[in-house]
Design a protein that fits this description.
Layout lengths: L1 H23 L14 E13 L2 E14 L3 E12 L12 E14 L5 E4 L2 E10 L4 H4 L10 E16 L4 E12 L14 E11 L1
Antiparallel strand pairs: 1-2, 1-9, 2-3, 3-4, 4-5, 4-6, 5-7, 6-7, 7-8, 8-9
Length: 205
């Protein structure tokens, strides 16, 4: 009998609390999309593009801080290899190199499953020959062959993002590189300008 009274008392208290919450509209919400969410992530991406009209392969790493799913700021490093066999005066003049710098990325619809962003890289890098014995292959006379040439780079893009979970994100996008001019050898590649399209994944908190 005492147990029945206890159950009835608990039921009355619960019912009274529920009615009061409905009348005052004081609900506890568990909607994570309405919370301010900041975090950090590590991103990996791979891309195919062109440089001087020739096939180019790129791979990059990004470490960034994300402010409320609306803006990213961090650092990006990119390595590349470009098939330049048909360019310039050399018989085998593929090039490779890398660049990196500040990563800035405004994000739109970041709280949704699908998002849109505008990644931007501002920095610098260097480029070199894939063949290290070029000096012994061809004599350019007054031409000077440089082993490494530095450059400044500016790379804007457009990216579509899919939030697999709170800790994992998939992205695909298109970018365009703009670099300062350099001269590895007379008649050769003078910049790394060109489009690239790629896929990436971001893992973080």
């Amino acid at each position: 009998m005492k147990q029945l009274k206890y159950i009835l008392l608990c039921g009355i208290v619960f019912q009274t609390t529920l009615i009061y919450a409905q009348e005052t509209s004081e609900y506890i919400e568990f909607d994570d999309s309405k919370n301010v969410v900041n975090g950090v992530y590590l991103g990996l991406n791979f891309a195919y593009g062109e440089m001087g009209g020739e096939s180019t392969y790129l791979g990059g790493v990004t470490i960034a801080y994300v402010a409320n799913k609306k803006f990213e700021v961090g650092f990006t490093g990119v390595g590349f290899y470009s098939e330049q066999n048909s360019k310039g005066l050399l018989t085998n003049n593929d090039v490779f190199g890398g660049y990196g710098g500040f990563h800035l990325e405004p994000i739109f619809f970041g709280a949704s499953k699908w998002g849109l962003s505008i990644p931007l890289l501002i920095g610098g890098g260097a480029i070199a020959y894939a063949n290290k014995d070029l000096d012994d292959i061809i004599d350019y006379g007054n031409g000077e062959i440089q082993e490494w040439e530095p450059f400044f780079v500016f790379e804007p893009g457009l990216s579509v993002q899919y939030n697999i979970s709170r800790y994992l994100q998939f992205e695909m996008g298109l970018k365009y590189r703009l670099s300062s001019e350099f001269e590895l050898y007379p008649g050769g590649l003078q910049n790394i300008n060109g489009f690239s399209a790629g896929l990436g994944i971001k893992v973080g908190i």
